[in-house]
Design brief:
Layout: H1 2-9, E1 19-22, E2 25-28, H2 29-32, E3 36-42, H3 49-62, H4 66-70, E4 72-78, H5 86-96, E5 101-103, H6 107-114, E6 121-125, E7 133-137, E8 140-144, E9 150-155, H7 160-170
Parallel strand pairs: 3-4, 4-5
Antiparallel strand pairs: 1-2, 3-8, 6-7, 8-9
Helix pairs in contact: 3-7
């Protein structure tokens, strides 16, 4: 009876293992996970939302102690399969922090990787955009444990302090 009560009352589980491409090499979360992992979904040519979130994240990492930084990483998944190469996504992520991991893959691989987190995106043709398209995507930093399960999240991160606080709360 206790098991049944626990099972019906437990919160839903989001997240899990995934495999994408990092700088031309296969990269699997379960083989590279740290104690705490931040996951952000976007694209390298994003004009505003992604650079702000990654910039705040980079500032937050600077506020951590060396020991804290050893136990946390940020993973950026590009959803622009048509235009972002594995190399360009890696370079993009490293521009914010050399330790940030930039991943991408085929549309099917990206979709399989982000779906368990409840993340989504829509590619829209936009002739007024300098790219000719835009991508609306989830603007949330997912906080994952070592198994890839979402333990917390930060919606539309707006400050480095907010990210630092979440990291310290979950380490």
């Amino acid at each position: 009876m206790a098991f049944l009560l626990w099972y019906t009352q437990r919160p839903p589980t989001m997240g899990g293992d995934f495999k994408l491409n990092h700088n031309g090499q296969a990269w699997q979360f379960s083989e590279n996970a740290k104690k705490l992992n931040l996951l952000y979904v976007g694209y390298a040519k994003c004009p505003d939302v992604c650079p702000m979130a990654l910039s705040y994240s980079a500032q937050a990492f600077k506020q951590l102690t060396d020991k804290e930084r050893e136990n946390v990483q940020l993973i950026f998944i590009s959803v622009d399969a048509e235009n972002d190469t594995a190399e360009s996504v890696s370079v993009y992520a490293h521009q914010f922090n050399p330790e940030f991991i930039g991943l991408t893959g085929t549309t099917a691989e990206i979709d399989a990787a982000i779906k368990p987190f409840g993340a989504s995106y829509i590619v829209e043709k936009d002739p007024k955009s300098y790219l000719g398209y835009s991508i609306s995507h989830t603007d949330r930093v997912f906080v994952l444990n070592k198994k890839g399960i979402v333990v917390d999240s930060i919606q539309s991160p707006r400050s480095a302090d907010e990210i630092t606080t979440k990291i310290k709360e979950n380490l």
